[in-house]
Design goal:
Layout (H helix, E strand, L loop, with lengths): L7 H11 L15 E5 L2 E4 L4 E4 L12 H13 L9 H11 L8 E5 L2 H16 L3 E5 L8 H4 L3 H4 L11 E4 L16 H18 L4 E7 L14 H11 L3 E5 L26 E4 L10 E5 L1 H8 L13 H16 L2 H22 L3 E7 L2 E9 L4 E2 L1 H13 L2 E2 L1 E3 L5 E4 L7 H22 L28 H9 L6
Parallel strand pairs: 3-14, 5-6, 5-7, 7-8, 8-9
Antiparallel strand pairs: 1-2, 2-3, 4-10, 9-10, 11-12, 12-13, 12-16, 15-16
Length: 485
């Protein structure tokens, strides 16, 4: 591996000089300079290897040779826009549609998850003739203006900004920390009824619903798994109101959940969204994404009279790469691997929970797993600083993990799908050691205690998140120092 290039300090200095200051970076007080990657591993400029537990973009593994070869070969023949006929576009659309329910048959190729979700809104607005959108608490759907409006994860950070009057926020269907929890007799219905109440209130104001949009599994919101039946009931309410259901699969699609190819399918075969958006894993790091919808929605979009054109969306190189990604998923049984290794990982983490009071909840599907840390298992007091300490201690062990959720206290596993059982063993072993040390330093009472307590005279923990925390977390970061043990 070549170590040629700028010295790390020079790279940092140039970044500070030329890159927008709001473009945050992982481990900002001591960032890692990555120069190469392969499979589930990344390497810094000194050749140090890091196990990547967070990169859901490199879906089939960093720099997979089959994907690289497909892109390079097609680039050597032709790359152009989609106003010319090319087989790659239609063959990829056909192959992608085969993974979806039959009625989802029309594709629009674009370049990022944000672009996909923005187009999905345009489709919904045109098809319904309505404007209002229902989104979920803590949702994140992208960085363009239309999506910041429907992403509470982002717009709640803007203290001076007012919520768009056409945007309505429903409770996150979180059965661990949310309004209706696992002990509720029918949490799915309770959360869906809240959406119905929102629709009724919109109608009272003389407006109508265009769309309900949700990540099939909330990622930035804290690895939230909706109760089965929730989407079906929400879709029924939304359809009765004349709206459409948009399923955002940008982070969780393409076999990550293991048991199904698409995360929305976890709700059951009786649920089919009207629009599905895709991104991140679709090109294994190559910038491509897609919106898939029904023939009815697509024809309504065409009826507007406005031509839709995207210079790079669906170009021959992108589609060649997309086809290669699907080939690798199938050839290497990566969906099956996600199911097997994901179950192994959650089993290991479940045993860890029995020994560590800081672990409040383990949840996930396949290789999409969250570990929520709490100071008090009854009050569910978020262990935000403790989660950050785990992240930084793992980094010292050359393992990359992140934390998210509204309180930044959920450890997020979403590694490349080539992640192995041995990788899971290693990460859990390190987390076990870190939590043992951390709980000892904090004076946690008892292995099976429902409550954790800080020891007197101990250092305080950092609440720094990896570059995208809310203002209150960032302010706490400036005021606290990491614990010294």
């Amino acid at each position: 591996m070549s170590a040629e290039g700028l010295e790390k300090k020079k790279t940092i200095d140039l970044r500070k000089k030329h890159i927008g200051p709001s473009c945050k970076i992982f481990f900002s007080h001591d960032p890692i300079k990555i120069v190469q990657a392969k499979g589930q591993y990344m390497y810094d400029e000194n050749g140090q290897r890091y196990l990547d537990c967070i990169n859901n973009v490199a879906h089939v593994g960093h720099c997979h040779p089959d994907v690289v070869k497909a892109g390079a070969e097609q680039m050597g023949f032709l790359n152009t826009n989609t106003r010319f006929l090319h087989d790659n576009l239609v063959l990829y659309a056909q192959r992608l549609q085969a993974t979806l329910p039959e009625k989802l048959s029309v594709c629009y190729f674009v370049n990022s998850g944000s672009e996909a979700n923005d187009l999905a809104l345009r489709l919904a607005w045109q098809y319904t003739g309505n404007k209002d959108v229902i989104t979920l608490e803590n949702a994140y759907h992208g960085h363009v203006s239309s999506l910041i409006d429907i992403s509470p994860y982002k717009f709640h950070q803007l203290s001076a900004a007012e919520q768009n009057l056409f945007v309505h926020v429903a409770s996150s269907p979180d059965v661990y920390r949310g309004k209706y929890r696992a002990d509720h007799p029918d949490a799915a219905t309770a959360y869906a009824d809240e959406v119905k109440d929102i629709i009724d209130n919109v109608h009272k104001k003389g407006r109508k619903i265009a769309a309900f949009i949700a990540e099939s599994l909330q990622s930035c919101g804290g690895q939230v798994i909706p109760p089965v039946g929730y989407f079906q009931q929400v879709a029924e309410h939304v359809h009765k109101a004349g709206g459409v259901f948009i399923a955002d699969e940008v982070q969780v699609g393409f076999g990550r959940v293991g048991s199904r190819f698409w995360a929305f399918q976890l709700q059951g075969d009786d649920f089919v969204p009207d629009i599905v958006t895709m991104g991140k894993p679709i090109g294994n790091g190559h910038p491509m994404s897609c919106v898939v919808t029904t023939r009815e929605v697509a024809e309504a979009f065409m009826a507007s009279g406005m031509e839709y054109f995207n210079t790079f969306g669906g170009n021959p190189v992108s589609c060649a790469i997309g086809l290669a990604v699907l080939d690798v998923i199938e050839k290497e049984d990566l969906q099956g691997n996600a199911l097997r290794v994901g179950q192994h990982l959650t089993d290991l983490l479940g045993k860890l929970k029995e020994r560590h009071p800081l672990i409040g909840d383990i949840r996930g599907c396949g290789l999409f797993v969250g570990v929520e840390l709490v100071k008090d298992r009854v009050k569910l007091t978020p262990a935000t600083a403790e989660a950050q300490e785990v992240i930084y201690k793992l980094k010292e062990q050359h393992i990359l993990l992140s934390a998210d959720g509204p309180h930044r206290n959920v450890l997020k596993f979403k590694p490349p799908l080539c992640f192995t059982a041995q990788d899971a063993d290693l990460v859990v072993e390190k987390i076990d050691l870190i939590l043992t040390e951390l709980e000892g330093a904090l004076g946690v009472t008892g292995n099976n205690s429902q409550k954790t307590e800080r020891g007197k005279g101990r250092g305080k923990l950092s609440t720094e998140e990896n570059g995208h925390g809310p203002e209150e977390v960032q302010e706490q970061t400036r005021q606290r120092k990491r614990i010294r043990t």
